[in-house]
Amino acid sequence: MHVTIIGSHLCPDTLYAINVLAARKVDITFQNLSASLADLKAYLALRESSSLFDGPKANGTLGIPCFILDDGFTTLELEEVLARL
Q: 9, 14, 38, 75: which is deepest, by most CB within 10 A?
């Protein structure tokens, strides 16, 4: 399974998720919002178009890490990703 992780190298939750998935030998693509304006722009478009981010927006948080699986399933919960492995 391939997982795209959208987050920041400055976010402890993102780093934790990367380490957990790497330890399980999951194929990962990391889109680092702190290092790439193109990734940030794409993430903002996703965040504005998906109801998945209603909670984080209401709470004033970013909604990272965000996980997109190769089947298109998108979640903000690492546990949901792990359950699908």
A: 14
